[in-house]
Specification:
Layout: H1 2-17, H2 33-41, E1 49-50, E2 69-70, E3 110-115, E4 130-134, E5 229-230, E6 240-241, E7 250-251, E8 263-264
Parallel strand pairs: 1-2, 3-4, 5-7, 6-8
Length: about 260
């Protein structure tokens, strides 16, 4: 039974990350905003609003409270959740590409096996969230990702390495303090002016990333790929670069701050 469950989970994960890439058109949404508002108004902890596996594409769902709703596996592509509250929800296997979560509360959410490419999460609260999936080219500028756990779960890799992908994502001005991105891929991501105090970036692919003027104090970049990574003006007080053999790959070190307090070996 356990093996069967793992195979099912792998199949669902593949559908979430790959199948959605080929869904370019969809019929009309299952529900409209008035119906969603009605279900939310009648919901409570015992009887959450049933939005599970619903097609909610292209709907304005801004400024709503979804904390008593079930959105598991729903198709939310291109919908607008600006300033909405989704704190603590399970959004596993939902379809979130090009969704608007700007200023939304996504703290303590679980988002597993999801494609969130090109989504707008600017100024969103993602603190204490758990994410495994694709968020390439997403806008996370000024978002709160403090204490987020977006690293690979190395104790549960029977289906192969599942990790967060944030290639070309915009994280400028974001707060990633105490977050864990273990073994994520973040090529050419923009971290300019971001706060990465005590952030775990162990084994992350950061090639071409921009950390200009970022606060990397106490961050762990052990075993990372830092080819053509920019550290101009970055605070490197206590930053760990263990395993870096060629410092010439680290661009902008001459203008970084507290380089003498960094751990480079």
């Amino acid at each position: 039974m356990l093996l069967k469950d793992k195979r099912m989970k792998k199949a669902l994960f593949s559908l979430g990350l790959v199948g959605t890439l080929f869904c370019t058109t969809s019929p009309a949404a299952d529900l409209d905003r008035p119906e969603v508002e009605k279900r939310l108004a009648n919901a409570d902890k015992t009887h959450p609003a049933d939005l599970k596996r619903k097609d909610l594409t292209d709907i304005d769902l801004s400024n709503l409270n979804f904390t008593q709703a079930d959105l598991w596996g729903s198709d939310l592509r291109r919908s607008n959740f600006n300033h909405s509250n989704l704190s603590g929800l399970n959004l596993d296997l939902s379809v979130l590409s090009k969704v608007n979560f700007s200023h939304a509360n996504l703290s303590k959410t679980s988002i597993f096996g999801v494609h969130v490419g090109s989504a707008n999460l600017s100024d969103a609260d993602l603190s204490d969230s758990r994410f495994i999936g694709v968020m390439d080219k997403a806008n996370l500028s000024n978002a709160n990702l403090s204490h987020a756990i977006w690293g690979a779960d190395m104790k549960n890799q029977s289906m192969g390495l599942m990790r967060a992908s944030l290639n070309n994502a915009n994280l400028s001005g974001a707060d990633l303090s105490y977050a864990n991105f273990d073994r994520a891929t973040m090529r050419y991501a923009n971290f300019s002016h971001a706060k990465l105090h005590k952030t775990v970036l162990f084994g992350v692919d950061l090639s071409g990333a921009d950390f200009s003027n970022a606060d990397l104090s106490g961050a762990d970049l052990t075993g990372t790929d830092l080819e053509d990574t920019n550290f101009s003006g970055a605070n490197l007080d206590g930053t760990r670069f263990a395993g870096i053999k060629d410092k010439s790959k680290l661009k902008g070190l001459s203008t970084s701050k507290n380089l003498d307090k960094a751990f480079i070996d």
